[in-house]
Structure formats: structure tokens, C-alpha cells
Amino acid sequence: MWATARSSHNIDVMATGADAVVIGGGVIGLSAAWEAAQRGLSVCVVDPAPGHGASWVAAGMLAPVTEATFGEEPLVRLALAASDRWPGFARRLEEAGADPGFRACGTVVVAADASDRAAVDRVLAYQQELGLEVRRLSASECRALVPALSPGVRGGAAVPGDHQVDNRRLVAALLAACDAAGVRMVADRAEAVIMAGGRVSGVVLAGGPPLTAGTVVVAAGAHSSGLGGVPEGVLPPVRPVKGHVVRLRGPASAPLLEQTLRGLVHGRPCYLVPRQDGTVVVGATSEERGFDLSVQAGAVHTLLDDARTLLPGVDELELVECIAGLRPGSPDNYPWVGPTVVPGLAVATGHYRNGILFTALTADAVATFLERGAVPPPLDAYPPGRALEPAAHTP
Ligand code: GLY
Q1: Which tens digits make up the pLDDT trace of 218-230?
Q2: CB 211 within 8 A of CB 44
Q3: Fewer CB atoms near the end CB (10 Å): N or C, the chain?
Q4: Which residue, judged by its Cα, is nearest atom 2 of ligand 1?
């Protein structure tokens, strides 16, 4: 039960005695809060700028197949389970009056040169071994699907089940849905947890009075390990993995691209994700540079160069935005969702390259844990206290 009345916009209300305080208002924190609130729990989200971290920068690909990496079969299964949740989750948000821009558009993978073709074929063979839905394409078959492709493209693959959601519309939809469901938004920074009698009982804020809660859920993306007051080694070791992204725009009436295009260009991965409003999101670099959000000219240059190698029409698009975000990387590339060894403290983080994809699955897992005390399958197989092995391969 809430100890204070609800404001008209649920903003900056002192919230005491909530069932849960979620630290982090990205898509993971917001969707978990929304799910929990819909199950009758009182929930508060703490974030100085909700939805404006990695969730804002992302391209919104829902890509269990094209993100599949050698040696990570269980992660692929998890990602497929996450992908299965998306149509229903998008429909529920729409029913709540907030369309997140889910688009079942499929993905085409292409290779820029002969060596890229060989690399694409190796991945394709692995994906086929796993029984994933992929089909090899000749160069002309690629061009039939994507007429604007460069004539130099050496063929690729069709991945009909890898879709997309407009991540910025998703943020807006979740904020609206949270508001309607009574989730309280506190525009502040969580500095530390409050420990009492060996358990976490609330959160100390940078600028406001402390919040008390039955459970504190850390969903702060790449910043999840930095929360004060938590005993050493309890929070998972999340690291920031920087990604540069470029946003372009063309006429919505004559889109350059209808489906997501992923390419390998002289060994470098590149993707172009078209939105219905004519925006094309081009990404992304993968850099280990700590908490650095600066936008570098060289990274933007390379992304644009690779994008126009695949799709020469990129030259005619308007350059709208260059931005960088921080993926929350985990040592083994699997997320952490569930309780820590400290009573009252749970986490939902480490989703690395798949945060948007895992939104619905993680939200259900967090809400189920808050409601019933246990994380449901399949995420229960990856508890926050697990022994960590380094990733088999990091793209
Ligand atoms: N999932 C795409 C990326 O992390 O760049």
C-alpha cells in the first residue's frame, strides 16, 4: 500500500512503503514496473531521465537469430523465448492505449565481398545446425528482396523471424502505461541502498528523501554495479560496451528499405533498421571504453561508409542524429534476472546486445518474482549468483 497520495503525473511524489522500488527507468525497469503494477503491487521507478539511456540509443532489433553467436546455443534459446513474447506484449501495450511500434518486418543479411560471403555462410551453417529459420540467398535473390541494394553485394540470407520495435516509441508507450497503472516515477538518482537487519529495505536518493520498499530491483543497465551500500560481490559485474548509432531520415512515402538489413562489410558488422516514418537507424560499433558517451568522428564515418556500401541510396538521406549508448555487458553474455543473496535486493540487468528483445520476458520474470518469490523458466536458469564463465565469443 502507498503511504502517500498519487500526483496527477506520478512524478516526484515521496513514495514510502512500496512493494518494490525499481532503480532504472529504461525499457527493462519500466516494463517490469508496469507488469508488477498490473498485478496489484505498488511500484516506484527511480531515474533522473527515464528512457534516455541505452533504451533511447538502441536500434530496436528483435533479433534472436541474427544476434546468434557461436558457442551460445542456450542464449539463442532464451532469445527465441524472448522474441515469442513480443507480439502479445505489443498488443497489450496497444490495448493500454500506447502503441510501441512493433513491426514484423523480417531481416535480410548481406555480404559486401567474397570473404564476407564466406563468413556469412559459416554463420548460416551454424544457425541451420541449431534449426533456426534462415535461408541462403544468391546476390540476385537479395536484390529482389531489397531493390535498393548495391549491385556489388555478394548474396546473403533471409531471416524472416527477426523483427523490430521502435525503441523510442516503446519508451513513450511504457511511460504512458506505467502512468496509467499507477507506477510512481521519481526523477532522481539512486545513490545507495538502505540495509537494515541484513536485508535491503529501501534506497537513498541524491536529491530527495529516502524511499522504503519491500524489494529493491536494480535495473540500471550499464550502471547496475555502481550502487552504493551493497556488500562487495553481491551485484553482478556489469560493464559498459559502447555503441555508436547514426539516425538518418528519408521520405516516409518512398522508403529506401522495408525490412531490417544486416551486413558484413569487409569484416565489419553493420545494420540498417527502417522505421515507418522514414527514419533509418544505422548501427553499431562495439567498443570497450568505460563510461564514455562521446561521439567520435571516425566511428560515424565508418558506420556511414559501410551503410552506403550496402545501400548507396543512403547518400540521399538526411543526417538527423549521431549518438552513443552503453550496452550492459555481462562476462558470459547472459542476463541476470532475480534475487541476489541479500534479502530484499534483486536485479534485472546484463542484457548486453539484447535489452529491447528481452523486455517482455524480463518484465514477466521480475513481476512473477515480486509476486510469488520465484523467477519462472527460462530465466530461472541464469540466477544472479551463478558462476560466471567468460563468453565463448564476443562480437
Ligand atoms: N543488438 C544490437 C546492438 O547491440 O548493437
Answers
A1: 999 999 999 999 9
A2: yes
A3: N
A4: 353
